[in-house]
Specification:
This protein is mostly helical and about 230 residues long. Helices cover about 75% and strands about 0% of the residues. A two-stranded antiparallel ribbon has the order 1-2. The longest helix is centred in the N-terminal third of the chain and has 44 residues.
């Protein structure tokens, strides 16, 4: 009976638990130094991650505090001061340079791209706007549309069409008909009149209440006449 109890103590379901625990203890003992190094590395990495997050949040807040004046200049159409600062507050260029990776720097790319577009510096507009990313549908659409405008000004109509289509595909009532109109006109320039008709008809069917829809029949007729 005692022997059975001993066997029961050592084995459950055919598993030699004492043997397994013994092997585990032996492994820990033999690899104690390596395990401590691994554990230490995990602790250090965790600390670095927390520290980086705190630093990044502080950087973003500081950048936002610094950028408010540039945003005011942007709203007032003081483009050079918005872009390069006024001597007391930094402009968007400096925010991008000094606070790279923050939300503020990301937004500064958007503002800078729009400014460069207005100033006629089209490649700089493209470079900055392509560096901007956001889940906000409105600014995402307007950024894509602005890139389309810049490519159009550079007479790179294929690229312009690509970006106008991406902007229109956001399906925003206030913006998509604008980009569809521009898309149709670019397609006409590219002699892709069937696609121009398609873009114009999308305005008529999906955005019938838009300003662009009021005169869209003329554009459809013009494009169809070229088929």
């Amino acid at each position: 009976m005692a022997k059975n109890q001993e066997n029961n103590h050592q084995e459950i379901g055919g598993l030699d638990l004492q043997g397994q625990f013994g092997k585990t203890e032996m492994f820990v003992t033999e690899n104690k130094k390596s395990l401590l190094i691994i554990l230490g590395a995990i602790v250090i990495m965790g600390g670095l991650f927390i520290g980086w997050n705190l630093y990044h949040k502080n950087q973003d807040k500081e950048a936002q505090d610094q950028m408010f004046k540039a945003e005011q200049y942007f709203e007032a159409d003081s483009l050079d001061k918005a872009l390069n600062g006024d001597g007391n507050f930094p402009g968007f260029v400096k925010i991008i340079d000094e606070y790279s990776g923050t939300k503020a720097a990301n937004l500064a790319y958007y503002y800078s791209g729009i400014i460069y577009l207005k100033k006629g510096e089209f490649q700089k507009a493209i470079d900055n706007l392509e560096s901007y990313s956001s889940k906000d549908e409105v600014t995402s659409a307007t950024a894509l549309g602005a890139i389309g405008d810049a490519y159009s000004e550079l007479k790179n109509y294929d690229k312009a069409a690509d970006y106008y289509k991406k902007a229109a595909d956001k399906k925003l009532q206030s913006f998509s008909p604008i980009y569809l109109m521009k898309l149709g006109m670019i397609y006409e320039e590219l002699k892709k009149n069937d696609k121009a008709v398609e873009a114009y008809k999308t305005i008529k069917t999906e955005y019938a209440e838009s300003q662009q829809a009021r005169s869209i029949d003329e554009y459809i007729a013009r494009a169809e006449a070229k088929l």
